Amino acid sequence: MAEIKDPENTILIELKSGTVAIELLPDIAPGHCARMKELARAGAYDNVVFHRVIEGFMAQTGDVANGNTEKDFDIRRAGTGGSDLPNLKAEFSGVPHDRGTLGAARSQNPDSANSQFFINFGDNHFLNRQYTVYGRVISGMEHVDSITRGEPPANPDKMISVKVAADA
Fold first, then answer.
1. What fold, for 8-167?
2. How do strand 18-24 and strand 161-164 relate by DSSP bridges?
3. How far apart are CA 137 and CA 162, in angstroms?
4. Tell me: the pLDDT tens digits for 96-146?
């Protein structure tokens, strides 16, 4: 595991194959980082599936309304919901969508990100300045690479737990 420099702005995602550590970028996207920490601390991301995983592109998760395998789970609806909190304003920046970066998933409306996010498998620079980048994987990218592919996957992988490192 990489050295954690700022535990308050580091997210630990437990997958079946191991832990993924994500360094948040609060100087770049303070609203998105605060939302992720709020939902993680509430346990909202625990047991939420990766509902859209595209080889060479990204793994998307974070539908806390419809993606939780422990609560009214329906894989066909996973990806259509968010949290009970209001949508976030876009926080676009010059940070590129490189391999391992965390991006905010949203609808066509730039200000519609809520709880869903994706981790880039490769450099996806066509997304630059169109989707908010608010973190990067600092260790455990091999676990992200092993997530089951599909739109949706027949047997989706899930985030077993998501915690702020300061609380772990």
1. Cyclophilin (2.40.100)
2. unpaired
3. 14
4. 999 999 999 999 999 999 999 999 999 999 999 999 999 999 999 999 999
